[in-house]
Amino acid sequence: MELSVDRDNAYGRLDKFLRKQLKSVPLSEIYKLLRTGKIVVNGKIIRDPAYELEPGDSVRIDDDLSRYSRQTVSVRPVPLKLDIIYEDEDMLALNKKAGIALHPGDKTRGTTLIHGLMFYGRQKGFTPHLVHRLDRDTSGVLLVAKNNRSARILSHMFRERLLDKEYIALVAGRLHGHGRIELPIDGQEAVSEYEVLEKFEQATLVRVILHTGRTHQIRRHFAALGNPVVGDTIYGNRNVNHQFREAYGLRRQFLHCIRISFMHPSKPERITLKAPLPKDLEEVLERLRT
């Protein structure tokens, strides 16, 4: 059994990662696997429970855990239509559609994006590594590393803010010109910049540049301003969401990653990946304009 480490499940210590991933396996058995050399990280047997994992690592378990009735660890490959906008030997980029989660979780059932990526990777001979994330109902550019080296480099770029990330969002109320939002999230620095693209009677279309990558950063920052992302069911305005659903057919949060720009992990060149605004969001804008 092989598990991939990405930004969302890199819990630091190896034993913590295993406990999270092997929820049906007794803790005593997990430490036995470590003691007996059944845990292999990047091709090397690791016995130290405190071994620090990083995004891009591959963890292999050389044991049959099927004796435990409730398996939560395996991600079986499932055919899934992927909108691939770029691919080379190191990475691929998807135009992720809204409504699909990246990977299984306690509240996620059914096929996720990683299921489809595992299927595609098996066909092409690579193991996919998610190096950043987009929320279930956020669409747009999503990067996927195809090997450990690229995963480490791309994860480092995201962590050290070495990429340009641009989003398009429709927020409730009126904003003017441009602005910078510096509001910590969960005790960590979080910085977003925005520029107004178009104004409507009850909402404003903005371009957002992320300087940090905190969880739900855009959604939380604009909610704190009093201008939540339209359609956001967690931080948004229920009345506004209802109105846009009924009048304009908006059935998810209006948030789309339109561009990511960065240095290629293996070549001395800068690469810019773009995903056009999807049809459902364009239709909302067209209705607002008329």
Automatic annotation (TrEMBL):
The keyword Isomerase applies. It comes from the Bacteria. GO terms for biological process: enzyme-directed rRNA pseudouridine synthesis. Pfam families: PseudoU_synth_2 (PF00849), S4 (PF01479). Responsible for synthesis of pseudouridine from uracil at positions 955, 2504 and 2580 in 23S ribosomal RNA. NCBIfam families: rluA_subfam (TIGR00005). This is Pseudouridine synthase. It comes from Pseudothermotoga hypogea DSM 11164 = NBRC 106472.
